[in-house]
Design a protein that fits this description.
The structure is a single chain. A hairpin with a 2-residue loop joins β9 and β10. The protein is built from eleven helices and twelve strands. The chain has a domain of 239 residues: Rossmann fold (3-Layer(aba) Sandwich), CATH 3.40.50.300. By secondary structure, the protein is an alpha/beta fold. The strands form two sheets. The chain has an eight-stranded mixed beta sheet, sandwiched between helices. Strands 2-1-4-5 form a four-stranded antiparallel beta sheet, covered by helices on one side. The protein binds adenosine-5'-triphosphate (ATP) and magnesium ion (MG). The site of magnesium ion has 5 residues, from α1.
Length: 350
């Protein structure tokens, strides 16, 4: 086991601590996709941290790298008191049982040939759990009931005999059965219709309480992320733009990209959101990200400085981190956050 930089005995030690996570995919001749370029986060016990950003900004790559599926190109991922990066695969699998991931597309993440009772028990099988026979069935039934499925109805069904929402409940049950401390939800409701989305989000809230989970909730939908999260981390092209409490998100968010996301919510203008100058359309290629601030090619505030100098993530208010040269020129430069400190905890008063 690798020595941990986090003191697990400290009452406020995060359950999951990620530092300088980099995910790069070599493609073609000497080309590299810069999917995630040095993000850091701390997940506190019992909290839900939302990760928000548009398609292609690196959310899934970050979630999978935290799970070591596959391991990141570089960086550190400490779960509890265990550094996962650099562990042998068997040790990673063992540690990873405490961290489960729910995927975006529930149906394709389930083996179509297996029955619900076997799908939910897959994790126990992989781990050669000592729970067997009647105890095992009782545990499966209890977990299925906890996610709102009637065990008598779904027990012998296969994925194609379930709705999308039921499939997602099976995925959640399968994760819960491993008794994780951390749940990473990668767009768990985006493939579901709106009424089912609400049911699954409620289910996640309830199970979080009941099972004592801490949750990383990845999504591109601002309203969903705001509703379910305690804090929101906004990613753009593999970099963190802003981290802030979700309470008051609409009022407090300052990064031009966060403001753009907020303004794109239907009805935002009527709800008093200031209009944001429309920027150029598409996400630049992660093969060759813009120099300096990655958002500058779409940013209405961009200047030469943004091309020349990457803005550092700094604390602009307690618990509010921001990486932008322009949105708050009043902020003294001395509030820059050194990279070795926790960039997502609020108790920074340098
Ligand atoms: N295995 C891979 N090989 C090459 N490029 C990849 C691979 N996986 C992801 N990418 C690229 O990395 C970038 C980030 O992708 P990622 O799936 O992490 O984005 P995302 O924010 O989850 O998007 P979405 O909201 O569409 O799910 C994209 O440009 C994507 O094409
Ligand atoms: Mg994704």
């Amino acid at each position: 086991m690798t020595a941990s930089p986090v003191d697990a005995a400290a009452p406020e030690a995060p359950v999951l601590s990620v530092r300088d996570l980099v995910v790069e995919f070599p493609v073609g001749r000497r080309q590299v996709v810069h999917a995630v370029s040095g993000i850091s986060l701390d997940l506190r016990a019992g909290e839900t941290l939302g990760i928000l950003g548009e398609s292609g900004c690196g959310k899934s790559s970050a979630g999978r790298a935290i799970m070591q599926l596959p391991a990141p190109t570089s960086g550190s991922v400490v779960l509890g008191d265990t550094e996962l990066v650099g562990l042998r695969s068997r040790e990673v699998r063992r540690a990873r049982a405490r961290m489960q991931m729910i995927l975006q597309d529930p149906i394709s993440s389930l083996n179509p040939r297996r029955k619900v009772k076997d799908l939910v028990a897959e994790g126990l099988e992989v781990w050669g759990s000592s729970t067997s026979g009647g105890d095992r069935d009782a545990l499966l039934r209890e977990t299925l009931s906890a996610v709102g499925l009637d065990p008598d109805v779904v027990w012998d069904r296969r994925p194609h005999e379930l709705s999308g929402g039921q499939c997602q409940r099976v995925c959640i049950a399968r994760a819960l059965l491993m008794d994780p401390t951390v749940l990473i939800c990668d767009e768990p409701v985006s493939s579901l219709d709106v009424s089912v989305q609400a049911q699954i989000l409620n289910l996640l809230e309830r199970t979080k309480e009941r099972y004592g989970l801490s949750v990383v909730f990845i999504a591109h939908d601002v309203a969903v992320v705001k509703n379910i999260s305690d804090r929101v981390m906004v990613l753009y092209l593999g970099k963190t733009c802003e981290v802030l409490p979700s309470d008051g998100l609409e009022v407090e968010a300052r990064h031009p990209y966060t403001r753009l996301l907020l303004a794109s919510v239907p009805g935002a203008e009527e709800a008093g959101q200031p209009a944001v100058a429309q920027t150029t359309t598409e996400l630049p290629s992660p093969l060759n990200p813009p120099s300096g601030c990655r958002f500058r090619t779409r940013c209405p505030l961009a200047t030469e400085r943004c091309a020349a100098e990457e803005p550092r993530l700094r604390e602009v208010a307690p618990g509010h981190l921001l990486a932008c040269h322009h949105v708050d020129p009043e902020t003294p430069s001395g509030t820059d956050i050194p990279s070795e400190t926790d960039p997502t905890l609020e108790e920074h008063h340098p």
